[in-house]
Amino acid sequence: MSMGWNWFVAALAALNILGVAWLLWWTAKRRPGDPKPEETSHYWDENITEYNKPMPRWWINGFYIAIAFGIGYLVWYGGLGTIPGTSDWSSAREHALDKAAADARLEETFAPYRNASLPALAADETALQLGRSIFSNTCATCHGSSAQGAIGYPNLADDIWHWGGEPEQVLQTVLDGRDGIMPEWGTVLTGMGGEHAIDYVIAYVRTLARPGQSLGNDYMAARGKTLYDGVCVACHGVDGKGNQAMGAPDLTDAYWMYGSSKASLHETIANGRHGVMPAHRELLGETRARLVAAYVWSLSNPAGAGGSPATSAAAAEPAR
After folding, report:
1. In 10 A of CB 194, how many CB atoms?
2. What are the average pLDDT values for consecutive 10-residue runs of the chain, which has 320 residues?
3. Cβ–Cβ contacts within 10 Å for residue 36, how many?
4. Three-state SS letters, 14-81
5. In-domain check, residue 9
6. In what helix (H) or strand (E) does residue 285 lie, and over which residues does it extend?
């Protein structure tokens, strides 16, 4: 805020205070020529009269005290733009002190889990509860309260990991985020295989989730394989298993983060996708990131979290 605006705010505040004080003074006493209190000409039921008397002195003095308090408050705490008060108090400093105190309490709570491995945290019920709480407050907005994701947001409750499901890979995802880009291939494929090229690729990609299926009688899938081998194989591999180092998904598992309909797959191939997992290192700090990563890792590793693999797997089975 510029100094000009500071003076404008100061002048506005002073004008309001002086205006209130003047109005109070002007209306607080009677003057020569004023009608008597009972001469208002307002009567009800013949004997009920409206009077016009000044407010009691104690009430008026209370208003003056309030005005003086307001002036003192502005002088002490500030309130005239960015001009500081004589106490040098600021809401930003107050917030910083409160945050530092809260951070100290959190640090004490999370200290026992500093630098612990994800499997060790996943086997600790208290640590797991803390991780679940952090997930609910931070991650559930995108991945859902049950961690089963939504269209465009990966399911964290299954065993499919685009960037790797090892403990350190999961932790890196939480700490530093991921940036997954599927390029636009519509123009390239159309130039290579004609106007139906994308449909050919979709036909072939769908066969990847059905091992052993012959392409001999499927003209579209056979044409799609030729196009796939020329464009898609660089990221998704010859066998369609993907590449976790670059976040290229496995196309053989029948899991489609953006939907499995023909329209959705057409949109993905023609116009690409750009999925971003934000980095949480600054927001959570490493210890809290470890706790939430341990909780997420435990969802697909129930044995490591002390649960029954069969039971936990059934509970975590995603809706495809």
Report:
1. 12
2. 82 92 86 75 78 83 94 88 85 93 90 95 96 96 95 95 96 97 96 96 91 73 95 95 95 92 96 96 94 96 57 38
3. 10
4. HHHHHHHHHHHHHHCCCCCCCCCCCCCCCEECCCEECCCCCCCHHHHHHHHHHHHHHHHHHHHHEEEC
5. yes
6. helix 281-300
Residue 314 confidence (pLDDT): 38
* Paired tokens of 189: 């494929």
Q: Do the domain assignments include residue 142?
A: no
Q: How many residues does the chain have?
A: 320
Name the residue range of residue 26's domain.
3-89
Asked whether residue 54 is domain-assigned, the answer is yes
Tell me the residue type at 198: I
Which letter does DSSP use for residue 141 in this model? H
Predicted confidence at residue 27, as pLDDT, reads: 83
Determine the Cα–Cα distance for residues 162 and 172; give it in Å rounded to an integer.
13
Contact 28/59 with Cβ under 8 angstroms?
A: no
Query: pLDDT (tens digit, 9 = 90+) per residue, 138-174?
Result: 999 999 999 999 999 999 999 999 999 999 999 999 9
Q: Which amino acid is at 298?
A: S
In order, the DSSP letters of 78-132 are EEETTEEPTT---HHHHHHHHHHHHHHHHHHHHGGGTT--HHHHHT-HHHHHHHH
Indicate the number of domains in the chain.
1
Token couple for 70: 């307001």
pLDDT tens, residue by residue, 252-284: 998 999 999 999 999 999 999 999 999 999 999
Q: Residue 42: what are its φ and ψ, rounded to 5°?
A: -110, 110
41: in domain: yes
Q: Are 251 and 240 spatial neighbours (Cβ–Cβ below 8 Å)? A: yes
What 8-state DSSP symbol labels residue 55?
P
